[in-house]
Amino acid sequence: MARSCHNIEIENLEDVLEFVSSEYLQRGEGVSIFLVELFRYLRKSATLNESQNILANNRFILNEVKIILQKLIDNENENFLIKIILQFLVNLVVANQTSCLKVSEIMYEEILDCFYKRRNDYEVLALLYNLHLKNRVLCFRDEVYENILNFSRDNDCEYAQFLSELFLYSESFWRHYDKLEISSRIEALELLQMRWIKGKLQSLPEISLQILSKKFWSSENVIFQTLSSNTNSLEPYEISLLLDILGSLCGNDIYLTSLQKDYDLVIRCGVLLINIHRIGKQSDNYFSSVQKLSELKEPSEAIQKHPAFGFKVGLVRLVGNLCWKNKKMQDLVRETEIIPILLDCCNIDARNPLIMQWVILAIRNLCENNLENQKIIAGLHKEGTVSSALVEEMGLTIHDDEKGGIRIVPLNLRK
Prior knowledge:
Distance between the termini: 109 Å
Strand order of the largest sheet: 1-2
Order of helices and strands: EEHHHHHHHHHHHHHHHHHHHHHHHEE
Oligomer: single chain
Radius of gyration: 30 Å
Shape: elongated
């Protein structure tokens, strides 16, 4: 007895699909009306698990659907029919691994072609999402990643967002990360950051941490493009975003363990911190500390929007986090002479909120069970006092008395 698909025998369905696929070009509109009704019926049938399996395991039927789709894609007048077919395919693959594999194998290129030619974006993205939801071994080409990330940025489509989120957990995506346009890379990074902030980030593949780390330290000098101006270039923003993400990911034990294997990361961060700190002291630039009371309370828009905002504290945070209970990292920081710079960063700075707290935590992590680092700090000695813009703005000054002590006195009483 022939199997049925919600009352239609499978052999009859094969014959009908074969007929309409061969007759479409000759009969045009009349066949289209019939196809709309046929795929509406199939769309409803595909909501049943039994029908899903029958249809998915019939290669002939899926091949005929592919042929029909091929003939429709370039015809702008057939968008409604394409929409019904795509909805049928979505119902066919939802929560069905077998259907996902079969549909992907037979008509994946046609589905992508629908997306490239903007045929019913919502339905085609819903189909791509469901195909990849259980099938992350499937790989997009470079331009597909690019197109979907751009579409997600410019359009309010939930399935474009869902697909972009799936990229974060795909090794294939991270292998292609550096080939993407910078706007697409930033879109992915901002999505990753937002998922982390909301506590909804799933397990990232280890390669993603390697790629993010290497991208950061191999492009670290980009930040110096902003030394004396607020450039409109996206590269400094990407580097700043990478730094913030790497510092955040250290809050997960698994990610931290992986990042602590990257000795280049802590060394490059330390060297970058040294250079930024020294440049900030050489002249008044975007890396110089800002200690004005008005700016400390609420930093100006110009300060907050500059890529250097929070960059130094981000470096301190990342270095400190990488040293958490890790002797090798602690030693590398000492050997690269970063400890004195860390201590010198312990000042209030409107450009780097909470930098004093992060320096204290970094020093704590550096000294834990590390006698060599403890000796370095214990061996430091006072060489005098420096003026503080913040203290002087309050009408006070720092005074070094004859007994070696330090006092804060009113400016008008200083001798």
